[in-house]
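Sequence and structure are kept together here, with a separate record for every protein. A complete record is shown below as an example:
=====
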Amino acid sequence: MKKTFTQSGIALCVMLALSACNQDSQSSNTQNPAAENQNSVATKKLDVAKFLADVEKEQVALNLENSRANWIYANFITDDTAALAAAADQKSTEAGVRFAMEAAKFDNIDVTADQRRKLNTLKQSLVMPAPQDPAKSAELAKIGSQLGGMYGKGKYTNKDGETLSLGDMTATIATSRDYDELLELWQGWRTISPEMKPLFTRQAELANEGAQGLGYKDLGAMWRSNYDMPADDFAKELDRLWGQVKPLYDDLHCYVRSELADTYGEDKVPLDQPIPAHLLGNMWAQSWGNIYDLVAPEDADPGYDVTEQLEKNGYDEIKMVKGAEAFFTSLGFEPLPETFWQRSLFTKPEDRDVVCHASAWDLDAKDDIRIKMCIQKTGEEFNVIHHELGHNFYQRAYKNQPVYYQNSANDGFHEAIGDTIALSVTPKYLKEIGLIDTIPDESKDIGLLMKMALEKVAFIPFGLMVDQWRWKVYSGEITPENYNKAWWELREKYQGVAAPVDRPADAFDPGAKYHVPGGVPYSRYFLAHIQQFEFHKALCEISGNTDPIHRCSIYNSKEAGKALNTMLEMGSSQPWQKAYKVLTGNEQMNATAVLDYFAPLQTWLKEKNQGKQCGF
């Protein structure tokens, strides 16, 4: 869990009253307006230092209070703890709105570069900025709550009369190979979202007004302004990165479509059309790992099963975490504090409900770091633990930064760092720690790379198009009557994935993806899927690795650990390009590292696609 300043619907009565007072003062003192203006500017220059210092003190206290309340709720789920967490969230949210609006008052004042960065951090940390109108602000808060409730309570009653949750449906879509069953569930989940459309439309109007009150063209421009470059340049940068990785995606898409056609028939999966969205093992067709069994290369078994090896070697939940910690200490990082072991949640309690979703927590911005997981003793969870500790070590690395900068360099970095570490959980690493006896030869790499490509490469265009759609909505380019049509046009353009049936006129399929009704920006996930491979490649080079990049593990490399820590310690204190250069030597992202990693698989895919009709 990372600390952020968030939006709220609180009425900014005090601020509006102060604004009115200032206007009254100006109207009553008109003898020397030029002198008064100079005095006002000088006063604001002094005020900004005091404002930032006061906010920092308040935010440190709010963060601790909020983190503790939410930790208790996640680990002891009751109505009372839910109320306490909600109250803490509301308090932090209202403070975040107040901070942002006050920060905007210094937009036209000449301040230091550090002060400007802190002021921008306060402004840009609002995800859904409220208009400076009490009624509209309250309306926006209510809409956010309503949309979240609609998604969270969403259920579908199937043709057999069974009422299914999203969890039930996603589990079936992951494993079923029945075309009609998959289609029913795919359509069924999307019955929850049409009623969201008018609320989402109004939310966009109100949040746009709030963003404009902070000096941005619209909400999309405000989101894109959070990347240390002009908003329009950021959008172009994402398209440039996608252009670099698209050839690999196209090869994967062509192969997967052909294999699905073999399974379901070309009448169901035409070889010259986008892939029907319900056949890819995921409710949103965003990652395709669940259909690995349908597309796996022949003779792809690496000869070991990490889950079995964990059991054979006596790994319980704590030993799994200790093993992941040893990865970081091998790089030169200090061991986790004793409080980590005392306060983290590693296994699901038998006596109470908890939120089992894996997460990394930083409660006091010092050393009280924890993870919360209901660990399963599987190879997949062993990877997840390495990922979550990546967050924790990042959090601890930037603990000496001011509260404004206690975050990742941009919002893609945190996820990218966790995944970068997980990329080093290779057969070589597993052998070094004694989990396997021999490293499979390179002929087995294709299966391992295929598994990873179905998760990571398949996700990249989806990670791009979600915000592409929202940015066009917020700018007015996509109007409400075209929401769904534009959504599927973008999905076909970027993913080569199509709705399996004609969609109803009132459909609002974007609302079936949590991050849309939840108001969560999505570009961070696209960035993380690009950055992790470049970070991994750079760290492997620093470590002196001579293996192919997909076989490299930085385990035991103090040189790689030192370079990594140098970047992590920066937090968000500098433009992300500076942090990027520390590790990669460049200030511009480069998605060709993805191609380098999957090079053997892409060669194999091109051979398999010989003579096939590719493209969509």
